[in-house]
Every structure is written in structure tokens, then in C-alpha cells.
Amino acid sequence: MATRTEKEQQIDEALATLMTRSAYEKRLNALRAAFPFVPKDAELNPGPGRLRLLEALLKRTERAIGRAKISFFEIRGDNPLEIEAWIDTASELPEGRRSALNSALKNFTRTANATCRLCEKPSESRSLSFFSAHGLCQQHEEIGKYGIQFADDDRSCLADLIEEAEHAERKANNASVGKSVIDVIATEVPEDDYGQPEHITPAIEMYGKEQAAKLDKYAKSRGDRDARQRFQALADQLNKRDNWRSLALLPDDWQAKLDEVEESFPNFSGFLDFLRYQFILSDKSDKVIRISPVVMNGAPGIGKTEVMHRLCMSLGLPPPTYFDFATMQNSARLVGTDSHWANAAEGELFRALALGNIANPIAFIDEIEKASGEGKYNPVSALLGLLESTSASRFQDLSLRDFQIDASHVNWLAASNQSEILDEPIKSRFTILQIPSPSPEQMRRIHQAIYNELLSGEPWGSLFQEIPDGTLDALIGVSPREAKRLLRTGAGSALLAGRNEIRPEDVSQFKPKRKMAANFVCNDAVA
What we know:
Layout: H1 4-16, H2 21-34, H3 51-65, E1 70-76, E2 82-87, H4 95-113, H5 130-133, H6 138-145, H7 159-174, E3 182-184, E4 202-205, H8 209-221, H9 225-240, E5 244-246, H10 254-264, H11 269-283, E6 294-297, H12 304-315, E7 321-324, H13 332-335, H14 348-354, E8 362-366, H15 379-386, H16 389-392, E9 395-396, E10 404-405, E11 411-416, H17 424-429, E12 431-434, H18 440-457, H19 469-474, H20 480-496, H21 504-508
Parallel strand pairs: 6-11, 6-12, 7-8, 8-11
Antiparallel strand pairs: 1-2, 3-4, 4-5, 9-10
């Protein structure tokens, strides 16, 4: 145990890190002068350790409100800190700017509550003390444990802080948990050239932490041994993880990324324009990747699945969560198997969100017009609930009792071959885009892009030279999916022959015997 002398030394070191009250007030006054949109009677008391965060917030607020005026601005409390801002007339602020302002306020609240209010260190500790959970770093937590009060009136006094922390702990213990709100993760806040935190990653609470604990009890209640082991493994995974999931952001060069995808898939220019219209809204606000539900309709084999994978790769997203409605006889793959069955298992959507790393992945539905099944087991019935924000925010997998997750940020994209037979509820909720079949020249560009992707992604790619024009000509009329298979097999044929280029004969020998029409629809050859 540390001696009193050692403790006094620790206290002296902690005191040396604190800002004087006069310096604190000087900084606050400077911020008020720099940002005149803040009302003169606004209450600003974030604590000296949060001043840089406040300055970053005011900069973001100034950009968000433009010419609008703020009538009320207040930062209140310390443990936890809360913030509120009112705009004179809400109608004067466009939706995008209101969203940006709301995001800035919530980002500041979450980040500030994860930062020591007395210094700039993270408010986290190896102990489980309430001080680290409510506004103190480990160093200043040590002072709080011994109830030390500063003798110098020009220093911050911790007596009130300790009392407030104790009150906040009691309040937190009685408060309900599991509410899903957009917030931020503040484990690491990089700084720009001016020393201001930026690039804070937004996140949501995917599920209540207490739900993961209940899942452990639910697993033990299962009578079937296999089911018990399966759900116990799931409970173990969730209990080891944080219950927050980040919202993926647009890369800074998203426009160039989309241009590259269009270069490789020129017949998808209409779809990529649709994405540009969606992304510019996010780029000018909170940067979160959001895509309104959209169906790409076109002939089979024109590259709809390929373009989805390329899009995810370009945006830095995980591969799309894939659902093939043509082969799904019920909704189990989407929303899980009913819990009363012995072989109940969670669906792919639950696994993507609860066990994944982001809250806004791309979910891709292939051949959406071919859904089958009856009543609630029809995939379309399950999908409709997931397209409504309110119900999706309380999504419950059928295999799990009373376990809700927030699926309201999923980006739903789909493909169809015959949009005219889509169910009316789907037509009313999705934007339907017609994707033309590629021209011969566009097919050459598509297959060139597929070849380049193989060379960069396969371990044998460095062995090959540029693909000859004749080989690209031999692939005209072949779907992108088939072209990838032919090029991979043709590469093996070329190496076996001692060559480092894929010639037309390397791919032609493996082409389907059936003729392919110009629109990629397979037609049996007429004798």
C-alpha cells in the first residue's frame, strides 16, 4: 500500500496538470468572442479538460447553421454533461443542416463525457470506480478517492465534483438502458493542424447490454443440446463485445471512387448517378453512408452482383450481406428460425449487425421479384418491416426471445430481372432503376476491369501481362460472372502451356456451348 508521502506526491502531480480558474475563464471569454452566434447569456461550463472539444463543436455549429441564428445554447451538468441548442426558426434551417447540427451536438456530448473534465485524458480507469465513468481520468480519480480539496481558491475544487459523481452513479444505476440514439465513439480522437479533434466516428447502440446477459440465461434454458451450445456460443460472443456499432462514413474521395466503378461498369451509370445524389447529401452533413432502397432491374448476367461487390470494396465496406430470394423458400435466412423449433438459428441480418463492426452495411437482395412463401414466412413480409425505420430500430430475430437490435441504418439494395412482376409494396418502397445491357465496347471494358481485379487480388496475378485484345473479343457475349470464371481457368491453361498471357483459345475452349444473346439472356441454340 502506498505511503502518505507517496500519496502526497501523486496529489501534487495531479494538481500540476490543472488549469487555474482565471486561465479557464480567459479561454471561455475568448471562445465567446470568436463565435458571436452564441447568445451572451448562454451557459458554458464544460470543464477545463473539455475546452478544445467545445471549440471544435462551435466551429462545426458555425458551419452547420450558416445564416440562421441560435436563440438558446446551454451546456449543463458535469456527470454526465448535457447540451442543448435552439434555432430561432426551424424552417430557416434545411434538413441537411439540422442533421449536421444535431450530429455535432451529440458528438460533443459523447466525446466530452469520455474525457476527463479537469484535463484532456480519457476518463477511463483500470478500476471500476464511478469517477472514471462520470468525468475523471485515473490520475484525478485518485484525488477524488481521498476527498482532497484544493486550498487555493484559484484552483478547481473537487468536493462538488465528488458529490455530483456519486449522484450520477445512483441515477445511472436506476436509469433504463438499451435506448438507440446516434452518438459517437471517442476512444481515439485524432487532431487536425490546429490541435482540434475531428473525424469522430458516429455510432449507435446496437442492443442493450443487459439483453446480452439475458441471452446467456436463455441459452441455458434450451432443452436441445445442440441449440443450447449454439446459443451459448452466441451469448459468449456478444458478452465479450461492446454493444455499440459504428456508422461507416463516406471516404473523402468518394466521387473518384464512384467514377472508377463507372469506368469498369459503364452500363451502370444511371445507378451510380443515383448514388451520387444520395452521397452528396451525406457529404454536406454528417458523412454517414446512407442509400435509399433501390432495385436495379435488368437482364440476368449483366453484372448487378459484381457491381455490388465492387461498390462495397470501393467504399471500404464489408462485402454485402447477400439474400437470394429465388432460392429462399421462407424468411429464415433473413430473420431467423422461429424459436419454438429445436433447430432454431439466427438469420444473416442479425449476425451481420450483432456480430459485425458497422451498423449501416449494405444488404443485397438478388432476384427480389421471385420471393415465395406464405404469410409471415414470406421474405417480402419480413422485408417490409425492415424498411420502416421505427420497426427496424426494434428488429427481433425470430430465433431469439426478447432480444432487439437496431436495424434501421441498413442500406437495402436489390436486383431484379422482371420488375413488372414485383409486389406493389416493394414498388412503393424502392426506387426502380433500369440497367441496360452493355454494348460490345462496354463489355470489353467490363471484362478488362474483371481481369485487372483478378491480377491484383490473386496470388498468381503478378505472373501475367496485359490481356490481348483478341481475348477480350472472345469474351464478348459472356456475362461478368462467367467471364471471371473463364479468365481464371484460362490463366491456368496459359501457365500450363508456358505462357504469361491469356490467349483467345485459353478461354474459348471453356465457353458454354449454348449461345448467348446480346442481352445476356441464355437461348438454346436452334438446330
